[in-house]
Structures are given as C-alpha cells and as structure tokens.
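Final report, Chapter 2: Outcomes

The project's central promise was a pipeline that accepts a single protein chain and returns its three-dimensional structure in a standardized token representation, suitable for archiving and comparison. That pipeline is now operational. To close this chapter, we reproduce one record exactly as it appears in the project archive, with the input sequence first and the structure output second.
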Amino acid sequence: MKPQNQKVKGLNILIEEVSEITEYMKSKQKAFDKVSDYSREIIRLSAQAITNLHNSMADSAKERLREAEKLLTSQELNDKRFEYYALQAQQEFAEAYIFYNIKTSGKLPSRKSTMVSREAYLLGLMDCIGELKREILEELRNGNVEKAEFYFTTMRSIYDTTRPIRFAEAVLQGFRKKQDVARIQIENAGTEILSFKKSRK
C-alpha cells in the first residue's frame, strides 16, 4: 500500500523559522570569526611584546602592546556572547602588560589599567611569575644579583597576595593549577639565587 501524500500542517511556518534561524546563526558565526581573529592577533602581539622585553627592547614591546590594546578594546572582541573565547586573549595581554610595567618601571599595574576582566587579570598575574623567573636567571648570568632579588621579591609578593584565593574551577578556571606552577617557579628561583650567592663567596 502506497503512503498517501499528506500535507504537513505548519510546514510553511517551519520553513520560515528555519530560514530566520539560519540567517541569525550566519550572523553569529561571522561575529565569532571576528572574535577568533582578534583574539589570535592579541595573543601573537602579546607574545612578541614579552619576547621584546626579554631582549631589552622595551620600545618595541610598548608598540606591540599598543597594537594589541586597540583590538582588546574593540566592540567586536567585546561581544558578550563570546566572553569565554576572548578570555585567553585578555589573559595573554594582561601577562605582557604586567610584565612590561614591572620591567620598565618596577611597578605592578592595576587591573583597570590593563582593561581586562577580573579573571584575566588574576590569570595574567600568575603567568607573569614565569616571565620574572626568566629575568632572574638572565640577571644572574650577568652577575646582577640585586636586580635578580628585586624580581624575586616581586614574584613572592604576587604569589603571597593571591595565595588565599580559592574558588571552584568553574568560577576561576585554571587558577589553582597556575598557583601550583607559580609556587614551584618561586622555589626554584630562590634556590638559583642562593646557589649564585654561595658561588660568589
């Protein structure tokens, strides 16, 4: 027995709904692609700024940060629908910006000056500890123990200030792991400084 050709009620409405939803999703995809592009560029520029700072090229680092800042504050990147995907870019920028301020002025910048979210600022702080450890090793290679100790004190200050922070992973994703890594980096840096001092006696 052949099935009868029956007209599905509401099919025209369904076609219209699917068409409207498809157009909306196309617009959303386009916005997401822009966020992804901007995020990748901010991460790239922030990484370049950090490399420049390690190579004592502060002016070049400042220029990279300025370029990243323009993207960071753009309307496209701050689409509330994709806050999670922009977080990594903010985090990387915060790390580079904090490191830049420590390296060039010896000061820790406020969160507002970084223009990133609270979460990104904290995560950036933790990552900056690794950059400071690299600076310590470089200063020790150059025989500058005083500068190495300044960076070590800064590392400890960041860690000690943020150590009481304890939130669920869903609230502050990745922070606890970064705290553990930072603690180990500080311990290793302290050992390097002590070994250097002993070798100089």
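Archive annotation: Residues 12-110 form a domain with the Methane Monooxygenase Hydroxylase; Chain G, domain 1 fold (CATH 1.20.58.2140).
This record, like all others produced under the grant, will remain available to the consortium after the project formally closes.
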